[in-house]
Amino acid sequence: xxxxxxxxxxxxxxxxxxxxxxxxxxxxxxxxxxxxxxxxxxxxxxxxxxxxxxxxxxxxxxxxxxxxxxxxxx
Length: 74
Prior knowledge:
Oligomer: single chain
Helix content: under 10%
């Protein structure tokens, strides 16, 4: 189960990475807790995030959607 959660969301320092290892062709709805009493709710369908709620809203600035912006290794 932890592996599945890590595919959906990862946290490093204060950053919240959404869908870092999720296949683009798989649809998913999830609700996961992150550090600092943060709740992440997401609905991902047909290759796009349809709904993304971050509670508290102050943490939205720390969210990175990786499926759209892949990390490039230098």
